[in-house]
Design a protein that fits this description.
The protein is largely without helices or strands and 118 residues long. The protein has one domain. The chain is built from one helix and four strands, in the order E-E-E-H-E. The chain has a two-stranded antiparallel sheet with strand order 1-4. A two-stranded antiparallel sheet has the order 2-3. It is globular, with a radius of gyration of 17 Å. The protein starts with 7 loop residues before the first strand and ends in a 7-residue tail after the last strand.
């Protein structure tokens, strides 16, 4: 799997091309470091950013009801699902909307030679 998605360096913040809003662009579960920081410093920064972004006052938690539809901008929303009972009946559909490049960000990371920060 790693060969299919090699490690890349990319900005941790982006500006939405339509709204001008700034947003973090990171996945704390896969981000391994921060350029120009030691490994420990980079991980500490990522941890602080994750903690700030996932404070209860910053999180929307959906209480599902039959017939609900939820949409989000994948590039500007940190998202995950909570655990659920495996016997619970679920019906999910995913839709992807293709927008012109001028309406959303396209990460243009640079492939790294090494995935291990100093």
């Amino acid at each position: 799997m790693l060969r299919k998605t090699p490690p890349v360096a990319q900005p941790m913040a982006h500006t939405h091309p339509v709204t001008g809003n700034r947003s973090l662009f990171l996945d704390p579960t896969t981000t391994i470091g921060v350029e120009d920081m030691s490994g420990a410093e980079g991980i500490a920064l990522i941890d602080r950013l994750r903690d700030a972004c996932t404070r209860p006052d910053q999180v929307y938690k959906h209480c599902w009801q039959f017939g609900d539809v939820v949409l989000w901008d994948n590039a500007f929303t940190m998202h995950r699902r909570d655990e659920y009972e495996s016997a619970q009946r679920r019906f999910l559909k995913r839709t992807t909307i293709r927008l012109p490049e001028a309406m959303h960000i396209i990460p243009r990371g640079q492939q790294l030679q090494s995935a291990v920060p100093a």
